[in-house]
Amino acid sequence: MYAAVGGLPLVRQPFDGPSLSAAAPKTVPSSCQLLPLRIKARSFLRIACVAKPAASGGSGVEKEEAPREEKFGDVDSRQVRRSADWRAARAYKDSGVLFDGKIEAFNNGGLIIRFYSLTGFLPFPLLSPYHSCKDPSRAIQDVAKDLVGSTIYVKVTEAIEEEKKLIFSEKDASWSKYSSQIKVGDVFDGMVDSFEDYGAFVHLRFPDGNYNLTGLVHVTEVSWDLVQDVRDFLNEGDMVKVKIIHIDREKSRISLSIKQLEDDPLMETLDKVNFQDGELVSDRLNMSLTTNIEPLPGLESICKELLQEDGITEVRLGRQGLEKRVVSQDLQLWLSNAPAKDKHFTLLARAGRQVQEVYLTTTLDQDGIKKAVQRVLGRVP
């Protein structure tokens, strides 16, 4: 990164003072003896990295020669170099180009990464799951110890010269390399990593056998049963199958679902209970043909709003039943997996263990009914 021009020669300058006459003393008192004076001058040519549009096949960060600066002494020369490297770090951060950094050491919080004349920090939470998933039983300190001396691709996430703060992320680098290989609907084998109150983080295993990206299974996507605590259903290190249901490429986030890989038990039951009078009822749902169960609160107002939607000409409340387990405490409307047939479609209203059928007469298809229901739920408090 740096080229230093060697020391400049010291040129003898003419002496403008009066010449020594022959009468001048031939010796100089010892107290006034002249000592040789040595001066070293150094000139450094600083080369800085700046972010430019990447040329074909280029990295996106190109070298640009900065103006020449004259400095004297080793301390000043090091400062020139470090200032140039801080500019380079900001260029990497702004451009998003990956940097191949050498791991020099580690501490209790993360890895120490060499960046030219600087050192930066990579916190353990920003390390790719690739390393820890090789042997989940190993402590992160042992993993870090084995990484010392190797190089990894990282992204510069913070570069603040005034605070001497240089932070790297390998997770962000992995996102740049692998996010183009995923899409909504993909199914992956995953390893459960950690938990929050709102869900579980799961590492995704790619076809090469490595765990390169991490997504979140929200608490509502863990099971068709009502989940109060995700830890009641999953443990760290569990192997699960997950489906990608949303990708936020701007924020580098992946939303996953476990339950969407399983059929909703009630939807299976719904296909079985759409019977004519006198047919048997599935034992998975205790249906009642009487009115001894109170209608679900708020359902009548939703039905009135459904009639305001174009394409829906009639709405009737149907049979009621009790589920064997609680799916949601709040009132929810569920669409049947079966499309509308002969202008008839059935919704399910669910709250707690209660479930009730809602019959629609409509000219809409399944997608049109879904949009209509969404509009209605947006209007009804």
UniProtKB/TrEMBL annotation:
Residues 56-76 are annotated as: Disordered. It comes from the Eukaryota. Residues 61-76 have a biased composition (Basic and acidic residues). SMART domains: S1. PROSITE patterns: S1 (PS50126). It holds the Pfam family S1. InterPro entries: Ribosomal_protein_S1, S1_domain. Residues 96-171, 185-259 form the S1 motif domain. GO terms for molecular function: nucleic acid binding. This is S1 motif domain-containing protein. It comes from Zingiber officinale.
